[in-house]
Predict the structure of MFS general substrate transporter.
Amino acid sequence: MENNEGLIASRHVPSTQGIISESEEIEMPNTQDSKSNDHNAEACDTSSVISKNQTQNHRIRARIQFGALCWCMYLAGWNDGTTGPLLPRIQRVYSVNFIIVSLIFVFACIGFLSGAFANLALNPKFGFGKVIVLGSICQVIAYCIEAAAPPFPAFVLGYAINGFGMALQDAQANGFVASLTDNAEAKMGLLHAAYGAGALSSPLVATQFAQLPHWSFHYLCSLGVASLNTLLLIAVFGLKGQDECLAQIGQEPGEKGTSENSQFRQILGLKDVHLLAFFILVYVGVEVTVGGWMVTYIIDVRGGGPSSGYISSGFFGGLMIGRVALLWVNRVVGERRVLFIYAILAIGLEIVVWLVPSLIGGAVAIAIIGVILGPMYPIAMNHAGRVLPRWLLTGSIGWIAGFGQAGSALLPFMTGAIASKAGIKSLQPLLVGMMALMTFLWALVPKSSRRTD
């Protein structure tokens, strides 16, 4: 019996151990799976946090980059808003007539056109960061020359150097913003609202300096703005190419072309580029002619006093407001269609300024014209992004902006040349004609994409 019981016991114990062993073997894999799932969950949480941090960093970096470009455009507006209030004082200081003082605009035009062509050659070789900083340095040099009030030939040479630098910066800033994939249309409007802010503020300062003995010290203020612009561009973009800067905000590089022709030849071979460039040339010409010569018109024809320079601020202030406040109108009506409406309203108001001999009424109408003209430039740039090949967009918009900027010199010079023969009262019919030409050119621009990429 004892043996049998021992046998039974010996058989029973292994059996129990086996059961326990099997049970443990069954449970152990479940414990490992649980640990693995916890580890995966922790990894996913960590990855999610990293992704959110990267996205947040990209957004902050994108805002910093956009802010630097807005300051760059603020400087462009500051420069364009300066000339109008100072023009009568420049005429008196240098004892020159309308056509001679208009050489300021001729030399600026030479600078703009040279910069537009140079940008097409410099951009592929040196890249966004280096080219835009070069443009800013040119402006610093120009303001150093102008602040000294040198003899008139050297003074207008400063405008040529300034124009060259502005063309490079205008081309790069517009091309960069047009390449953004995150709400580029609204950002283009805000970018050019910054231009309007600069053009609004500079006449307020220039009007004061125009009445002081050291009138040219206004350009020391411009020098300060330009120096800060140079430092910002170097600090934010670090002389890097556009693709590198876009990568810093989480955006993939743009498309690359496959054509064997150089980018220069491809861009200049696009009909739409030239239509948009001439539209911008006339538009910018109208904008700067109003802001530049309207002060002289108000003083000579309407009997305005020294404070008439503030009318230029009213115009550029309207320009800034229109580029932001009318964004919703552009979306509702459609950008292409609404530009025709704006152009017709602007022509009507310009006729009011021409025919109604009221100083206050004219000042109000000029400010409203600024509001209406404001959205046109951003609309044209946004439209370029829709009708031009994506892989040529940056270079194309650079050419359009740089070439178009020549209008800020060419058309004001034409105005001065005509005014020297027919008087400054010829300004209003000339502006109406320019606006009509601008509307006609916009009608020639294609409605939809004709890209060949």
